Description:
heterotrimer, B: Aminopeptidase, Elongation Factor Tu (Ef-tu), domain 3, 6-stranded antiparallel barrel
Amino acid sequence: MKTIKRYIETFSVTGNEEELRELISKDMESYADSIKTDAMGNLICFKKGGDSSKKTMLAAHMDEIGFVVTFIENSGLLRVSNVGGIRPINSAYGEVVFKNGVKGVIVIEENTKPGDIAVKKMIVDIGAKTKKDAEKQVSVGDFLTLTQRVTKLKNKRFAAKAFDDRLGCAALVEASRLVKVPKYDTFFVFTVQEEVGLRGSKAAAGGILPDFSLACDVTPTYDSVGSDPGEVKLGGGAAIKIKDSSVICSKVIVDTLTRLAKEKNIKYQYEILNAGGTDTASMQLAGGGSYAGCVSIPTRYVHSPVELIDLKDYENAVALIAAFVEEGV
Amino acid sequence: MERLYSLAAELTALPSVSGFEEAAFGRLGQITDGLFDEVFTTPTGSFVGVVKCGRPGAGRLIFDAHLDEIGFIVSQIHKDGFLSVTNAGGVDTRMLSASAVTVYGKKAVRGVFTSIPPHLKNPDDKNKKLELKSLYIDTGYKEEEIKEIVKIGDFAELYSPLFRLENGFIAGKSLDDKICVAQIIRAVEKLDKSKLSCDLYCAFTGGEEIGGKGATSASYAIDADWGVALDVCNPKTPESKNFLDDITVGGGCVISYSSTTSRFLTKALADCAKKHSLKTQLKGEPGRTGTNAHYIFTSRAGVPCTNLSVPLRYMHTGVEVVNLSDVFEGAVLLAKFTEELGDIKK
Amino acid sequence: MKLTPLFKKLCDAFGPSSLEDEVREIILNEITPRAASVKVDKIGNIIAFKKGKSARRKKLLFSSHMDEVGFMIRHIDDDGYAYFGTVGGINESVIPGKKVVIGENRIPGVISAKAIHLQTPDERGVSPSVEKLYIDIGAKSKADTLTRLCVGDMATFAPDFEYFGSDRVKSKAIDDRFGCYALCELIKKDLPYDAFFAFTVQEEEGCRGAAAVAFGEAPDEVVIVESTTAADIQGVPEHQRACVLGQGAVISFMDNSTLYPRSAIENIKTLCNENNIKWQLKTLVAGGNEARVYQTSQNPAVVAAVSAPVRYIHSPACVADISDLAEVEKLLLKLAESGLVS
């Protein structure tokens, strides 16, 4: 949980992943044979495998959703646009923090009808008195997000802004430590700009052209009040993805993960998501195609400041990823 | 046309739901045995057969027809053996109530999509959209029994074996796009290989219904010089739009100009049809063609491509309708086009 | 103030997505004598290499697109009217009441809609959907129409280029013939370092030509030269104007398809400030351009978008300020000297 907390408390809104990349790079230093960063900012950590005839690529994204300043009003209040999939209701009336440390609050325009609530009706107030006053600390093009924090709950459960997808990054780092020699040459890739359309992974996968790919991301559960019908539940174990709206996972990967989970007594469940997309899709489509899948960590209230997980699910995911890297397809 | 019919009947019966096309590879290999000099597959569900011309450094032509069909993925198993499913590709929920399906678990089992009886329907609900999450597949088994056969993640598809109507019309499921797979196979059978100046790659691609995944991978793997996407298209029907008025089932294959494909190649196809007096119809597609031509064009450093379509009524239902004469003349056109490709100048 | 005659020539040229031939001809004629090598790739993109005084360590590419938005004929009815669909994103409200030219022979036509006297109260003031619109070429019958054009032919707004007002210009297709113009003029100059130039096809239908260039050329740095929507018109609140005519070259930090690297943006700002080039930041996250395909290709490039602010984009009467166009040209010359990232 310490690693996860460190990652969560690092600002990494889409397009601004440098700080987190530094941290992860240091954490992977002792394990990887080589580490490099590509032109988009993806962190690519390479570990030689026992069999160099095939390549495995793992992906978790470093970026978190947030906002960007588009305009500074004469009053010193700021207009913003969303960066990634923001649901205004989930983000309103919270404390925000800018990349440069400045604090503010994000609110909705007064007298906005519930049906009209949208990001274009959101205002950020940093306490400035005028436009000039605001410009002393912020500018158009500055990035911000809801203040990151982790809250400990009962039963080894935690709520945070944001587990998506620093949890996946931590999972890859921890999994790497459990694997002595990967079956195939393996690339642990910490991607950028996933939240705005899987952009980093497209470039990274294109550069690697893997044979097998595995992403690690969060996935919503269906066990809260008012949820759509579905099987994924908190505490149900590592979620083996069958499909989401960007990808139908390769059968051979789903079967391999299932077999490994059974053999090693790792608690697992299947995940079907009718929305959302993950880096899995980019990796599946790289070059002539790769067999791709995803190990997801069940999370309630995704894309809110209170994403909620069961640490045991995370631990099961780490074990499953490590098994996949070590024993492969 | 008998050969075409039996090919279509076999192919449409092959289970190849988007994302699960591998299930069809074995039988597809048997059906095309002897046709190709080389065969390979992609992880994204494509089956590619190559006809080599024997000339070193020859150009590469792709014929792409998608192998996948829309279908369903088991998402939950309920009491009394009812299954919930999610969609693989654009499923038309209006067609499903009381339709028969095949569920591919440890073995293939029949099922029926549920239908709410009239006396339980709310008159106000008449215009409400029917969502897949309100439909279930009735397997006829008890919960413990079905759980032995089927698990979450297994796929299912409509059950509707091919049958004949009058005048060369046929009906069934997944003629989109397996009728074009059949068409390509017939074209290869009709090809005069002595006239070939290019290598022909027949790509039966996966994942078209979920975003052209198989075509993207196959085009990358093939690295072609030209491409023709073979797919189906909507024709005139009582409810269709005015720009489909001139497209009829039985009027020949459809040549489409589009702002997203290559005009010179489209013209070459049209000229070839004229030269050999083959029946074709013309379509203006202002934007996306909705076919794999979309993905082939932007592959690698660009691949000039066009699209030839078989007019098909009632797309994405269990009773899709085409006319075999359209398919046959299209196959002849493809064979001639391939033989004469060397004559095409940009 | 005026630009060279090449600008009008390019704006007037017929070039809807997939039929850029006339534009390609003009550009090839302009640049071939002044570039070290010029090629046209398999799908019609022009790629030119301009040798500079010295070689450049990184591969820098400037990209603009040759195609414009337009129409394609889909159906000719029994009376000879030609129904069509749009190519690229054209707002329904700018289509009725306009002149067009169709096909190889540039046949003139008009697009209108039901006369006001025949409209119901519900129809008044409402833009008809594209499906209901048709082109009238003055034909006597369907057969007459078919002797002059057919399904699959393409059309654009009729050219009507004019300098007007105070140093302003109106024309169709300023997006992106201005970009093509600026790059042609740049190629004709003596440059200190090597540079590559791409004039692409089919941008308006999803940056399709550029995707091929990104793969084939694998540049390290790419500058997209575009026109971007200026909504600085009466009735639009300040924070939604995106950019303003007369305030200089527009630099984007983010749009719907790209996050532009900070380092490149800061360098561009510095270049402008040091060389007295007027610039402005785009104050809205909207739209997208070819940067997307260059940034996410197998060989990801550092990208930047430098644009002219243009009102009423994708209409027959785009409006731009000559001084802004001049500032963009100045900035491009400086970028050709220094590259995107020092």
